Amino acid sequence: MTKAGIIQCNRRFIYAAAIVALASGISGCSTTDKTTTGSISPAAVSAGSLPTGNFDQMNQEQLMQASASLGKRYEANPKDQAAALNFATVLRMTGRSDQALAVMRSLAIAYPKDRQVLAAYGKALASTGEFDAALDALRRAQTPEYPDWKLLSAQGAILDQMGKTGEARDLYKQALIISPNEASILSNMGMSYVLSGELATAEKYMRQANNGTGSDSRVRQNLALVVGLQGRFDEAENIAKQELSPQQAQANVQYLRAMLSQQNSWKMLKDKKQPKS
Length: 277
Prior knowledge:
Blueprint: H1 3-14, H2 60-76, H3 81-93, H4 97-110, H5 115-127, H6 131-141, H7 149-161, H8 165-178, H9 183-195, H10 199-210, H11 217-229, H12 233-240, H13 246-261, H14 265-270
Helix pairs in contact: 2-3, 3-4, 3-5, 4-5, 5-6, 6-7, 7-8, 7-9, 8-9, 9-10, 9-11, 10-11, 11-12, 12-13
């Protein structure tokens, strides 16, 4: 595997909100949420008899049940904003990103100036790889005089995937000015350094994120990922065990070992110049 291939694979499992299949670990290269950890919260919007709570905490069976219920509500009234937002979220989390985008595209037509709708539409676009359109939607959702740090962080995550690292990190810094010590921003910044192969710096940010405001399972799994990419597999497995079953944690570390052993791919990352912390 070439260095470009390694970095691309890293991008794919780093940017799954899963970040990965919603915090299910790093057992493969998958793509779901391209705006990473906490950039735009997938927590359910409460409205009437809609399923409520945090979708992150649901297992696949529960998500499918929520999808069926929300689908009926959406079908009855496609302009029901809360139902559509929740339905699109669950569709993305169950791997149906194209369908989620179709739902959000229709909602954006119905509510072209609604910030919440535009933000969710941008997330749906990013999930299908339509990065330019996603950035446009997120920028339209932003209010310059009162910028939203979540949107800035989401824009940064998309720019990172487009290879615009400098622009991405500038946005993370702006987001941190608004919300200092916010775990999700620090996590995104850390992942930015993973993508450029600067693993020591990435770990520094991920440890800050782990101790930051709003730190959650996804942040700790990102820390395990960064530690594992540096070859400290036992430490990575111990961190992962805090969030996953021992079997899942072990499987994740085995996957990392296998990936980094392919055609000296670990050496490619290890030999890359590391900045001083």
